[in-house]
Amino acid sequence: MLNSGYEMPVMGLGTYSPSDEECYDSVTALLEAGGRLIDTAYMYHNEEAVGRAVRDSEVPREDIFVITKLYPDQFSDPGSAIWEALEKMDIGYIDMMLLHHPGEGDVDAYLAMEKAVGEGKIRSIGLSNWYVKELEEFLPKVNITPALVQNEIHPYYQENDVIAYIQDLGITVQGWYPFGGRGHTGEMLGDETIAGIAKAHNVTSAQVILRWNLQKGVTVIPGSANPDHIRENLDLFHFELSEEEMERINALDRNEKHDWY
């Protein structure tokens, strides 16, 4: 339950980098597998594909939660950028819109999103790649507390102090790159600690990482174009990590950020 009063699924699909067709197929696979949360962005250049998959699905629109983002090069004319996203996706309304990362004009862009909330075009708003210092500077300048803050979070970059800070403000946390991101996934899924815990539960390393996030109160949006992996990433409620297992994964933190955001 978000502070905006809307419910958001705790796990879903990130769509960073897939082509239009691949994105359409991935979103369709997610919806067919029972997933209902989709994360896209202006900079992913696939909002149209996400919208088309949602419209073509037999799942009722109100059961699907779509997140998109405004990029800093759109902050100078946020009203037009919001309208562009609505037109591209053509799904009636946007469940959640985020500012992709801090940039010049970000406060004005957020205020424009607040206006769109009042007009019913967007239901919830939030931020991506905002940390403690940025939030301390930003939040006093806006009227609506973000419903979501989305940051890079994985076993090698855990952000535990930031997660607690955000959650204490009543804001939901979402992690991107849960498997470490491109070029790092193999190492993370092959990590001896994670693989050992996975074997003990008869699940995959990916499921262990996602379950670890959920037990920390962090919602997850792993990306995948593989329907089997998409189904696997949703199947997280038939096992639970012990406190000792959680601590063993917590001990893997290297403060190793894999993207510049």
Describe this structure in words.
This protein starts with 12 loop residues before the first strand and ends in an 11-residue tail after the last helix. The protein contains 11 helices and 8 strands. The chain is α/β, with parallel strands linked by helices and about 260 residues long. Helix 8 crosses helix 9. The longest helix is centred in the N-terminal third of the chain and has 13 residues.
Task: List its traits.
14% strand; 8-stranded parallel sheet; single chain; 261 residues; globular; alpha/beta
Describe the protein's topology.
Layout: E1 13-14, H1 20-32, E2 37-39, H2 47-56, E3 65-70, H3 78-89, E4 94-99, H4 106-118, E5 122-128, H5 132-138, E6 148-152, H6 160-168, E7 172-176, H7 185-189, H8 192-201, H9 205-215, E8 218-220, H10 227-234, H11 243-250
Parallel strand pairs: 1-2, 2-3, 3-4, 4-5, 5-6, 6-7, 7-8
Helix pairs in contact: 1-2, 8-9
